[in-house]
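Appendix B. One record, verbatim.
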Amino acid sequence: MSIVPKLRVYDLSMIVINLVIGVGIFRSPQVVAEKALIPEVFFIAWIAGGLVSFCGALTFAEIGARFPAAGGFYGLFSHCYHPAFAFMMNWVLVINNAAACAGVAIMGAEYISPVILPQSLHNQQGITLIVLIVTGLLYGTNILGIRSGANTQNFLSVIKIGMMLVFCLAVFLPSGSGNAAVVSAVVPEYSLMDLVKALGISLIAIFFSYGGYQQTINFGSDVENPGRNIPKAIFIGIVLIVFLYLTLNYAYFHVLGFEGIRQSKLLASEIGKAMFGEYGYKITSVLLFVSVIGFLNATIMSNPRMYYAMAEDKVLPAIFKKVNEKTQVQEFALTFFILLVLAAYFFAGTFENILNYVMFIDTISLAAAASALFILRHKMKGESYSGYQIRVYPLIPVIFILMILICTVSVVYSEPQKALIATGLFLLGYPFYKIMTWK
């Protein structure tokens, strides 16, 4: 049974937003501020990250329009490079995505458990209970059908965007009204080279905060009129995300000050307290929990489509591409991914370490996916094509790819051992590929 398109522009735009906005914007500014050294580098990094991400959005908009296939990332790599390379990349990404889901679920549970659970469950048991309930509910919602998952996504997105816009109103509070703003520090002198290095390292966390929109190409065969609607959805999503990120970061700076950002790991809570007083923590907890659920739901919708493409290439058993004719759900693939997420949760220590290691592979896969646009254009040369095309080509994809590779170099510079282990994990995929394709 093949996949029948059921997603519209609005559905896909909401998926873009939820794939990108998890909890990163509420945590990563503190990391970026530590690496950036001074406020000017902090804001330059976030603006540069937004511009580069917009270049990436344009690049993946054309890729999605030219190659609207199920499981876009795997199918793209297989079509443009080689099935073995596609498998090696994607088997690392499968681990990464499951571990990311587990990690984000834990963060969400830590925030919401003091609000909704009795005192006796303000512990690891309470967190486990919430993770299991949320995962089960999202599994049940998505097993009902892709439209059910999309409708849930749309509902969560409206709440998330609305609450983030409320937090953006903190820019109208008196300057330095947050508790962390009282912190002061003597700013040392930095050389130009120090600041350039700080900018490069800062971009690592920023690119991961902006990342996720590229996964929309996994829904290529689920989208009505993909040549038109995938680019439009990516544009809408990324423009709104960049606006929210830049405004929220200015709000953090306005309320807390630069040293306040550097020393507070609960930025949203600080903003919540400044805006709503004693109820600030509860409101913030609800916001973060809604954001977590939205990210989890979008990831649960996306990943099974990657298995579909792998099964079509016969590097996974055929059951992974089996689609329920009525609901358009890959029931086995969806169940498999949910079990993988739960396994990641119960072995969180191991999977969190793996997640740190695959940061290097993430940047490589993103650069490789963007570079596939040149191959797609070459392969389709002479064919009739009326879908979206980047106007400033090849400058836009070249800028994006170069900046991503600079980020890769920054990862190697700051975490050489993890980059080496990640490379080994990637190469280990080759014998698995030979085993899966052996007859």
